[in-house]
From TrEMBL:
Pfam families: Acetyltransf_1. It comes from Roseateles asaccharophilus. InterPro entries: Acyl_CoA_acyltransferase (IPR016181), Bact_Acetyltransf (IPR050832), GNAT_dom (IPR000182). Residues 5-146 form the N-acetyltransferase domain. This is GNAT superfamily N-acetyltransferase.
């Protein structure tokens, strides 16, 4: 029997599976409150995508579409929280969900899509380059709350 693979938008009903998957992104992360989950999934312009193998959530990322007053008023997209379950890496699932998010951003009229990562592993950077991102195009700077 061949497993079915599908990518779809996630909703609040997928939150438990998504939070569990995030342990493969940031082990030991504190789970969000139910109120925070509802607020995130109700946020306009924010979408979460999940790749399912059969009925199991295997990979995910989110896309924020940001309104903009430059570039003729064209919005831009930001992809974050890219994760694939550790037991399913190296099979193209992460690449598929990222490319889906990029396609959705372009369909929404975004003139660019930005992705950031805190990973220092060159293999992770190579993964994003295989997804079509150009590491030399922009530089990101971050301030974190202490």
């Amino acid at each position: 029997m061949t497993a079915t693979v599908a990518i779809r938008d996630l909703g609040v009903g997928d939150a438990d599976a998504l939070v569990a998957l995030y342990q493969h992104l940031n082990a030991g992360d504190v789970p969000p409150t139910a109120e925070a989950v509802r607020a995130v999934f109700a946020h306009p312009g924010m979408r979460h995508f999940g790749l399912f193998v059969s009925d199991a959530l295997i990979a995910s990322c989110n896309l924020a579409v940001i309104p903009n007053l430059t570039r003729g008023g064209s919005s831009y997209g930001v992809i974050e929280n890219v994760v694939t379950h550790a037991e399913h890496r190296g099979r193209g699932h992460g690449q598929a969900v990222v490319r889906h998010a990029v396609d959705q951003a372009l369909t929404a009229g975004c003139y660019k899509v930005v992705l950031t990562t805190s990973r220092k592993d060159p293999a992770v950077w190579a993964f994003y380059e295989r997804c079509g991102f150009d590491a030399g195009d922009k530089r990101a700077f971050v301030i974190r709350r202490r």
